[in-house]
Amino acid sequence: METATVFRSSFSVCNRPTKAASLGGSDFTRVGSQLRMSPSGIKLYRSISHVRLSNRKVSFGSKKSTAIRASVSPSESGGSAAPIAPLQLESPIGQFLTQILTSHPHLVPAAVDQQLEQLNTDRDAEQQKEEPSPAGTDIVLYRRIAEVKANERKKTLEEILYALVVQKFMDANVSLVPAISPSSSEPSGRVDTWPSQDDKLEGLHSPEANEMIQNHLTLILGNRLGDNSSVAQISKLRVGQVYAASIMYGYFLRRVDQRFQLEKTMKVLPQGVDDEDNSIQQVAGEDIRSVDKSDTSFRSPTQSHPELSSWSAGGVSPGGFGQGIKPTRLRNYVMSFDGETLQRYATIRSREAIGMIEKHTEALFGRPEIVITPQGTVDSSKDELIKISFGGLKRLVLEAVTFGSFLWDVESYVDSRYHFVAN
């Protein structure tokens, strides 16, 4: 695969009269199964200026449980505080967790534990019910009710995962980027009016993971990595694809880094992993297929990221990984995986996590209007263009990678209390 095949195709530098920079095609898909932009509607958080906590009975659906409830009085809810995350949670439990996040985020894990306990109780009760006999007239209705309840549980779990991810960002004192839209206060029309928090985001990863993240940024931004001030005009759809793929890359990275750190502590790392000068091309073969950069449609599972593509295929392109892509200890460690292990680690485990990535990305970038031409390619003429600095792009990618890392953590946490991840 040629240098920087990730992002270099659809923007031009706005504050310099130089030739339009070329940052490659878009090779981003879901890791494990195809990612698409969800068609569901998007809303923002309703502002909550102050929330009181009290112990009382709180009802969700037809079940009642004693829980910590965040209550809002009419006189206290009229503030104009900015939303804490782009996605509004809509289920009763999601709204409940939103109130706690706004006022007392440190109580979110305890509230989540209570709700997961209730979900376990509800699921056990449903499993004990006997399904009507095939001859009965109620079997269709019974199965429809079961399907509706399963969808409700899935949505609830998605929103629990989201609330826990947001809470981890709040614990790290990092604010999530708000929904992307041109700012009326910015004369140039730039969308990146958010503060730079790169140092905080990089500090949330191990040194080995940060080396991999720098390679990821180099693949995306190329020689613009150190240029934070130049402004580019970029397809909003492309930026959304990069963001979603970076979430999945962060998920994969946290997963392999946990294993790496454990084996490093136990001193059982594979031979050669500590060799910083180990050649990537010696570890891998030479048989990866080239990627058609003109195709902007979503890719197959093994082509979600140029690095994952090369690992899965067992090789690199004849041109190598390009200037600035360096061998690292963690990269060499991943190279030691067999194909089956790599595919397993590069797969998002639950439908709930996949759905949450889709909804968060759509809440951040909006629902894209994708038109397929008769030739089967994506018509880019309807792409919305946004103005954003390269520093803003870096901030988005760092946030997305961290989001994916947190997603792996909270998915594991929730699954330890409510088993929902497929084997």
> What is the overall shape?
globular
Q: Please report the distance between the alpha carbons of the first and last residues.
A: 33 Å
By DSSP, the count of extended strands is 7
Number of helices: 12
Q: What is the percentage of strand-forming residues?
A: 5-15%
Number of separate domains: 2
Largest sheet: number of strands, sense, barrel closure: 3 strands, antiparallel
The average pLDDT value, as a whole number, equals 73
- Specify the helix fraction band: 40-55%
Structural class: mainly alpha
Strand order of the largest sheet: 1-4-7
Low-confidence stretches: 1-6, 8-80, 276-323
Order of helices and strands: EEEHHHHHEHHHHHHEEEH
Rg over CA atoms, rounded to whole Å, is 23 Å
Describe the structure.
The protein has helices at residues 92-103, 108-128, 139-171, 198-202, 207-221, 236-265, 280-283, 306-313, 329-335, 339-345, 351-365, 390-417; strands at 11-13, 52-60, 63-71, 231-235, 371-372, 378-379, 385-389. By secondary structure, the protein is mainly alpha-helical. Helix 1 packs antiparallel against helix 2 (108-128) and helix 5 (207-221) runs antiparallel to helix 6 (236-265). The protein is globular. It starts with 10 loop residues before the first strand and ends in a 6-residue tail after the last helix. The relative contact order is 0.20. Residues 286-313 are annotated as: Disordered.
